[in-house]
Structure formats: C-alpha cells, structure tokens
Amino acid sequence: MKPHENALKLLNSWDANAQQWFEAVRDSAIESRRLVTNQAILDAITAQSPKRLLDVGCGEGWLMRALCEHMGEKAPEMLGVDGSQWLIDRLNALGGRGVCVTYESLIETPHPSLQQGDFDLVVANFSLLADHCVELLQALRPCLTPEGKLLVQTVHPHSVSPSAREGWREEHFESFSGNWQAMPWYFRDREGWLEVMTASGFTVESVKEPRHPHTDQPISLLMTAAC
Which domains does the chain show, CATH number per domain? Predict the structure, then answer.
C-alpha cells in the first residue's frame, strides 16, 4: 500500500517528535491525559479482563506500564506495535515488548507477531490518526479471538468544533514547550467513527464520552466494539 502524502508526513512527524513526546508523557505534561483520558482507557481495559492485549500505536509504552501498575497480577500479556523505531526502542528498554511496523505494512501483509486469534483485546488509544482506519482495523480483526473486543479512544469532535467537517487537519503543538514538527491528522465526527467501526466488521457495543472534571466538556470518544 502506497502511503498517502499526509499519512507519510504523519509517520515522519512521529519520528521527529519522538523524544519530546516521550518526555511529555513521562512528565505528565498533557492535562487531558492526566485528568481524563489516561484513567478512562485503564478503566475500560480493566473492565474487559483481557488475557492477551495488542496495543496499536503503542508509542513509548505508557499504556502497558500503566496497566501493569493498575491491574497488578491480573495485567494481561501485552504486545505493542508502532511505526517509530525510536519509540519502540524506548518501550523495549523500559521492559515492554514491542515491534516496529507501520500501519501500511500491517494492511499489506500479516505480521508474524500477530497470529490469528492471538489476542482477546486490541486497543488503539489516540493512535488512529490517518484516513486508512477501515483498512487497518480490517487487517487487525483476524488476530482477535472470536469473542475478542476492540477499544478505540480518540479526540472528541466537540474539542475541535461541533460543526467541524471530516478531513485532514494539522496539529502544531502550540500548547507544548519545545520545537515540535507539525503533524497532519485526519478528523472524524462521531458518525464518521461509527461508520469506520461498522465498515471494519465490528459491532459497536458502547460509546462513552469522558469529560473534563472542571468544565464538564467531553474530551474523548471511547468506543468498545465486538468482532
């Protein structure tokens, strides 16, 4: 699969911003994560009691480390995949297990680390940022068990604009310190995300809207879907 120009720029931006992203996550510098979305995804995963989990777009491995602390002995066996070698190297150095592979590669060819029926939970936590989500989720669906679930947490449309239209946008990280490279990302509204899940062969079971504790504004969409 030949990457769309914006998808390629997106991947390159993760390489360029990898160390600064690692430091921002390590220092809990992102308010929405610290106050809302980190706990939301941990609670959603814990509710599923997974045995084997695939973290799609795992980055530096925050989620896997946080799950070990949050779930203790009940934490699942976990594997992460990400297109940034720098971030995968940090994950593995910190005791996680991850492989560097782009989404385009996963769409084209099944990866040997992702065997059919290997996982009972696939998680994409703010990591579906391009326009090929249907193809990617279709490619990942076979690695789930027949009873497996998919969890997707993504930007709430209202945090962009209630009237925003689907399409490519650009993040400039203006609220972050440091010199970040601009990152293209593909915006979808609530209906667009539900269409993605259905077109990928999943049945949406629930859609939650975690909210900011002080403003009560929705921060994310958190979708649970079954095979």
Answer: 5-226 (3.40.50.150)
Any alpha helices (H) in the chain, and if so which ranges? 5-26, 31-32, 38-48, 62-71, 85-93, 103-108, 133-140, 190-199
pLDDT at 110: 87
More confident residue, 1 or 171: 171
Question: CA of 59: how far to CAs of 28, 93, 102, 219, in Å?
Answer: 15, 13, 12, 21
The mean of the pLDDT values for the chain is: 95
CB of 21 closer than 8 Å to CB of 59: yes
Using DSSP bridges, classify how beta strands 144-155 and 119-125 pair: parallel, antiparallel or unpaired. Answer: parallel
In the chain, the percentage of residues whose pLDDT exceeds 70 is 99
Helix (H) or strand (E) holding 54: strand 52-56
